[in-house]
Amino acid sequence: MFSERHNFAHILLIVGLSACYGSSMPVETALKFELQAVCPWSGARAGVFTTPHGAVETPVFMPVGTNATVKSLTYEQVDATGAQIVLANSYHLFLRPGHELVKRAGGLHAFTAWNKPILTDSGGFQVFSLDSFRRIVEEGVFFKDHKDGKQHFIGPERSMEIQNALGADIIMAFDDCVKNPCTHEEAVASMERTHRWLAVCVEKHARPHDQALFGIVQGSMFEDLRRQSVDVVTSFPLPGYAIGGVAVGESRDVIERIVLFTAPLLPENKPRYLMGIGTPWDIAYAIRCGIDMFDCVSPTRLARHGSAFSFEGRLALKNARFTEEFIPLDPDCLCYTCKNYTRAYLHHLVRANEMSGASLLSLHNITYLIKEARLARAAILEGRFKEYFEQVELKLRGDITA
C-alpha cells in the first residue's frame, strides 16, 4: 500500500486532475473507445478505438517497430499485412536519432511516412532490463546506453517530454517493471513507484487532446497487488489502461492466471492493453480474458531465426524436412509470402542466411497474428466466440513456447 504521505498526495493530485481530465476535455472526443460486443461466456470484447490518425478495430495485434521500423520490413510491407497500428519505442528513439530531431521532422508519422495510428512505449521496460547499467532514484532512472556506454536519465517527466515530441497517438506512462520471480515486498515497492510516476506523467502530459496516455497496472504475480494497482491506476480518468509486468520471467500458467484475474477488473468502457504478448496462443487466450490490444516482437524475432506460424504449429524452416516441401507455409494464408513462395524456397533462404528469408517470414508471421485477431473479432461480433475459442485451443494449446 502507499505510505500515508504518498496516498494523501495522490488523492490531492487526482482531485486536481479530474477537473482538467473531465468529459468536457477534447481527449474525450478526439480519442474515443466504443465497445461493440462482449462475449457473455468469456468476456471477450470487440470495439473501435478512434485516434487522430484513424480508427483501430479491436481486438488487435500491433507489430513492434522498435526503432521506428518493423525489422526487415518497409512500412508499405507492414501495411500489406493488414496492420492497423504499429509500435515504436521512446527509449531507443531518445538515444538514436533523438526525439527532438523526430519532432523537427514533423513527428513519427511524418518521419516514417506511416499515416495510421502509432503507439510509443515509455522506455520503462527497456531501462529496467539493463540491470547493472541502471540506478533508480525517486525522480527516475540513470542508465548507460547499451551501445556506447554513455549515461542518460529518464523519469516520468522526461518520458512525457520524449513521447509528446514523438507525437504518437497512444503513449504509455513510465513505469517500474520488476522481473520475476520477486518477493512480495519487491513487488510492492515497484508497484508504488509506478503509481507515483503515473501521477507525474498525467501532470506533465502536454498533449491530452491528441495523444492518449495509458496507465500501466503492475503488481507482479500477486493478485492482491494487481487489485490494488488497478484501483489506483484507474482512479486517473485516462483514455486506456494496460497490464504490464507479465512475460518477464514467470511461468506460462502464472501469466495466464494474472491476465485472467486482472483484465476483468479494468473499466469496461476503456481499451485494455496487454503489453509484450504475441504468440498465437497468447493472443487467443488474451482475447478470451477480455484484452483488446497486444504487441510482441516475437513474429519478427522468430522470423529472423527461421521460424513461422502455421496451422500445423510453429515451423522451424531450417529443418531438413522442408527441403522438398513445395507448398505454402499455410494454405489458408493470403499473405504475399504464402501466395508466391514455397516452404522449400524459404528453407533454402533460411539455410543460406539470406535477408530476404527474414523479410518473407516476418511478412507471414505478422499477417498470421493480425488475421487471428480479426477472426476472433468476427466471432465475438457474431456471437460464436465460445465455439471459435474451443477450436483454437485444440489447435494451438500445444504450441505455446516462446
Q: Kindly, what is the distance between the CA atoms of the first and last residues, rounded to a whole number of angstroms?
A: 34 Å
Uncertain runs are 1-29
Structural class, from helix and strand content?
Answer: alpha/beta
* Integer-rounded radius of gyration: 21 Å
> Which percent bin holds the helix content?
40-55%
Return the average pLDDT rounded to an integer. Answer: 91
What's the CATH C level of the largest domain? Alpha Beta
* Coarse shape: globular
CATH homologous superfamily label of the largest domain = Queuine tRNA-ribosyltransferase-like
CATH topology of the largest domain: TIM Barrel
- Characterize the biggest β-sheet: 8 strands, parallel
State the strand order across the main sheet.
Answer: 4-14-13-12-11-10-6-5
What fraction of residues sit in β-strands?
15-25%
The number of E-state strands comes to 16
So how many helices? 17
User: What is the architecture of the largest domain at the second tier of CATH?
Assistant: Alpha-Beta Barrel
Count of the domains: 2
Written description of the protein model:
The protein is α/β, with parallel strands linked by helices. The chain folds into 2 domains: about 5-295, TIM Barrel (Alpha-Beta Barrel); about 305-395, no CATH class. The protein is built from 17 helices and 16 strands. It has helices at about 5-20, 25-30, 75-80, 90-95, 100-105, 110, 125-130, 155-165, 185-205, 225-235, 250-260, 280-290, 300-305, 335-340, 345-350, 355-380, 385-395; strands at about 30-40, 45-50, 55-60, 60-65, 85-90, 120, 135, 140-145, 150-155, 170, 210-215, 240-245, 270-275, 295, 305-310, 315. The strands form 4 sheets. An 8-stranded parallel sheet has the order 4-14-13-12-11-10-6-5. The chain has a 3-stranded antiparallel sheet with strand order 1-2-3. Strands 7-8-9 form a 3-stranded antiparallel sheet. A hairpin with a 2-residue loop joins β2 (about 45-50) and β3. α9 (about 185-205) runs parallel beside α10 (about 225-235) and α12 (about 280-290) runs antiparallel to α17. The longest helix is centred in the last third of the chain and has 27 residues, at about 355-380. Mean pLDDT is about 90; it is low at about 1-30.
